[in-house]
Amino acid sequence: MKLKNKLRKNLFEIKRESYVKEDISKEGILDCSLGTNPYGFPKEILSKVNLENFDLSKYPDPYHDSLREALVEYWKGAFTKEDVFIGAGSMGCLEKINKFAINEGSRILGYAPQFSEYITEVRIMGGVYDYVQLRKENDFEFELDPFIEKISNKYTLIYIDNPNNPTGQTIPIDILEEITQKAAKEDVIVIVDEAYGDFMPKKNSAINLNYENLVIVRSFSKGFGLANLRVGYAVIKGKELRDLYSKINLPFQIDTLSEILTIKMLKHGKFLEKSKKLISKEKKKILDFLKENFRISKTSPTVPIFLVGKEGVNMYRYMLRKGILTVDGRDFVGLDSSYVRIRIPPTAKMFIEKLKES
Q1: Same domain, 308 and 205
Q2: Nearest Cα residue to 109 out of 118, 332, 95
Q3: Are residue 129 and residue 250 in the same domain, yes or no?
Q4: What dihedral do alpha carbons 86, 92, 94, 98 form, nearest 10°?
Q5: Are residues 75 and 197 in the same domain?
Q6: Average pLDDT score over residue span 307-321
Q7: Is the pLDDT of residue 21 over 80?
Q8: What's the number of CA atoms in the CB half-sphere (13 Å) around residue 217?
Q9: DSSP per residue over 164-219, as a string?
């Protein structure tokens, strides 16, 4: 069929890239790739959930009012029920923002490295992704000045993932506020992707800010350990953006069981705090072991991912030979195979013993 003149031309030119690999056998492999909570989820949320009580012939609540109300309570009124939208994972929310915000040729500003799947989605929509490269010699630490200087009216969106994927570093809320203020003066929307946000203090979340041009996206897949349910949410306090999101938002984003389990999960703050303490303890052991021979990115102690590299070494192949599955640096803009992203396993011992094997 001759469709190129009828459909978005950029789709014919894009090769979809993803760091989710399907062709790797995981037998005997320590999986340190996908960024989930290394300690799973609290099994007690499954108690008293009787599947026989579910009528699978009925649709779920169209806009998931119970979960939205539970989120308002969890965040102690930092936003209203009308400000929060439920999505099929945080990526589902990001897709909706792109749907109303990106036209062919729209320019989006980010920094590199950062979450690569979002960059792919921008390009699929016909957007142009510009970025500020984080400096290798500075261990990829986010620097405000070169980023804020780049902000101008030519951009439609600014995309910031906080904590950053792949480094695991956390950007302080006062820096996010400066960026948002400058963007507001230039009529630019700021997206703060807090997929890993439950691994940082709630006080550092952009949810605590109040700006018309700000959208915050979160997920239950990481800190809360519910990746299989694919539940995310967006918080939008600006009325104009909220109205635009509402126009492209569809009902029935998640099923009833997922809604029930995520509400239960919000009441398990102790699990999250325990996870962060364990992550901090085990991550320090791993970083202390690696830093003698490898370069470590700027990273936060309670976030379970980090970037490690060595000049002249294909780190992905090196780690795979040692029996450790990681994410190849080539899957991120601004990196190459001399770096890999690692999600810590439940114990440092599991990781260190693999590396010590000949």
Answers
A1: no
A2: 118
A3: yes
A4: -110
A5: yes
A6: 96
A7: no
A8: 25
A9: -TTT-----HHHHHHHHHHHHHTT-EEEEEETTGGGS-GGGSGGG---TTEEEEEE
Amino acid at 222: K
> How many domains are contained in the chain?
2
3-state secondary structure of 275: helix
CA distance 189 to 197: 20
Rounded to whole angstroms, the Cα distance separating 10 from 106 reads 13
Q: Which amino acid, one-letter code, is at 297?
A: S
Q: Which residues contact 196 (CB under 8 A, 6 or more apart)?
A: 35, 161, 162, 163, 165, 168, 222, 223, 303, 305
Strands 214-219 and 155-161: unpaired
One-letter amino acid at 44 equals E
264's CB contacts (< 8 A; 6+ apart) are 45
Interval 206-227: pLDDT, tens: 999 999 999 999 999 999 999 9
Pairwise CA distance, residues 215 & 158, whole Å: 10
Average confidence (pLDDT) over 50-55: 84
